[in-house]
Give the backbone structure.
Amino acid sequence: MPTVSSTKRIQLLKTARAAAQAVKDEIERQNAHTIDPQVRARREPILQEAITMIQDADENIDNLEASQVGVDMDGAALDKLTELGQKLDRQIATNAFVNLGIDSLTEVLNGVSGVKTALA
């Protein structure tokens, strides 16, 4: 299988999107002139498939274009981002322990409440 560059893939996706858009437009044009609901119903699956293809192509084009964006960053900025990531990881772990403690305390209090209710 030959390798396809991102630029070529974007071009192919745009072509596929245009074809799906043409199908969608044609079905909508035909539906505007068709009164028979059965005829419209037969066209609906193709219309929905065209809409899905347009949405998928748009998403893939956006992703491929985003993957081509380069970001230059100096070492200090990279170090700062790494430090912030580590702080975030520590905070997430701390919150997990706090939530575990709260859950345990809640369980104990619910147990005490159950005993109190049973003794009443």
User: Anything to note?
Assistant: The chain is about 85% helix and 0% strand. The mean pLDDT is 89.
